[in-house]
# Entry
Amino acid sequence: MQPEWVQGDKMWLRVLLALLLCPSLDGQENSFTINSIHMEVLPAQEVQNGENLTLQCVVDISTTSHAQPQHRVLFYKDDVLFRNVSSTESTESHFISQARAYNAGIYKCTVILNNKEKTTAEYEVLVRGVSSPVVTLDRKEAIEGGVVTVNCSVPEEKPPVYFTIEKFELNAKGGKHRRTKFSQNQNWVTLEFTVEEQDRVIHFQCQAGIMYGKRVEDSKIVRSDMVTVRESFSNPKFHISPQGTITEGDQLHIKCTIQVTHMAKEFPEIIIQKDKLIVAHSRQGSEATYSVMAMVEHSGNYTCKVETSRISKVNSIVVNITELFSKPKLESSATRLDQGESLNLWCSIPGAPSANFSIQKDGVTVSRAPNFTTKASEYDSGTYTCVAGMGQVVKQSNAVQVVVCEMLSKPRIFYDSKSEVIKGQTLRVNCQSRNGTTPIVYHLLKASTILESRRMSSREPAVFQQNPTEDTEYQCASDNCHSHQQMTSEPLPVRVIVPVEEVQLTILLNNMVESGKDIVLRCWVNKASGPITYKFYREKEVKPFSEMVSNDTQAIWRKAQASKEQEGEYYCTASNRANLVKHVPRSNILTVRVFLSPWKKGLIAVVVIGVIIAILVVGARCYFLKKAKAKQMPVEMSRPAVPLLTSNNEKMLSDTSTEASRPYGYNEDMGNHAMKPMNENKEPLTLDVEYTEVEVTSPEPHEEALGNRYSRTEGSLDGT
# Structure
């Protein structure tokens, strides 16, 4: 039996399980639908910065249950979820206290009921204006050249924010300095402003701006506290000594002073300028002084500048110097003279006061009097000035440039004779006058015509580059400032070596040469300089068969009594010392044919015909002899058979006689048939031997062989 506390627990467990299952059973049994959903923005969709704002999401749900079903409501701003709440109410609100610019945007809400959801339309909420910024300064008193730090912030807004800060002078119209800065991650900004020398009492203004979408909202302009500015140093002052009229020769003192306050962090630099030229300066102390003996040229406008890294103050004064005497004037009888002429110089002062004079040439004194006379030489050329002095005042005159011309020597013309002049190559012609005043103008002449000119500022030779194509002559003329006419050099002959450029090979009369006559080949070139080396070649042969050197533009090669061996293709080459070894010109290829003369052809024909006739005569004679011998054969065949010869000599004689007696075309078979009847009868023959002398000619070798064959056959009548 279980204890009572165990039974009680089981009962409560059953009750809890029943409570948990009831809602699910109701959900399965009840039906619902979302009829509509919309959003309300209160008090309006456009509010001012700092006003309260309420967003209400209103849902209309229908259900079969007696109680409103629980659902979820989601609030979105610019498609970003910012609130998620579960509710059984038909309206769910989101309150925004003191709306700011960052609260502006596109809002909507969504209701989710089990697997069903519905979203409202989008509502644009506008927040006009930006909360006022807060401006703070790091100090209320500053010194010229110092720095004031300005902090501007909008604590109630969110970044990014545009800040505009402007510096103002008290009682001045318009700002003196305006700066804008964009703060991406902070709602505040800090800027530094330099205190300028004209500033006395200043303040700053700040304005904040926020952009959302395409709209920009600006805050009100907020003004900072006042800042009092104190000088770091005073404006510069001039002190001129001596006072009153200042005359040339007096000692002039120009002093610039300032006062520096105890608040200054550094001493300023004091600079005294005459026009733009710095004549004195000081980096330490409170003054700078310029001291000089007064001259008229020291008259003018003087400026004193006092500068630090950020501050600059300026003051100006005009100083007038009274002239003691006028500037001397130097004159010359002539500025261009020929060597040997008289040079006269004199110096004077307007008003003719008594003064000490000296005349100088290029800074060297040549006379201690107001006049200077000399016989001009080349060394007298230069720049002359006159110096006049009264007491400590010394003045210099204008400069006079004097040029004394030395007559030119006869120019010489030359070129580098170590190398030959080849057509097409550049020839450097030099022209030089060893004596004479520079600058010198040189002219290169050819047949009295100026080809080119050079202006030389020294006595170095003038170089003219020419490209002569044939033998010629050059002359050189030189001229300078001397009154004498220009000088002309001796003629310079130039022999130009013309290289061989084109080669032609021809044959005199005709390319068809009769055998026994001469072959004459002519190798000729264009206008080339001799000596020229001619070489004759046969085609496909490396070495020339003839070589000759000539100053003429052609070379002749002759072959007497030409034969068939001279028939073929020919070419030639020609070159002189202007041609490179690898570029020797070659002629055209000439084909030469050699043929027999008519009388030689007739002689050969007569010989050939004579030989043919002789062969025919010999053949006819042999033919008739053999035919005559053939007619004697029937007579000899009717006679008794000749006994066999026991002697070899007799046998050979019989064979020879028999062979000779056979007619031309004799057939051995015919002879055998003629003796067959005698062998068939086999009758004894008692024949008498009859000798006959026969004249036998020497047979041809093949005929002799046939004769031997027939003689062996005729050795016995029965063929054995």
Notes: The longest strand covers residues 201-212. Residues 1-8, 15-27, 641-720 have pLDDT under 50 and may be disordered.
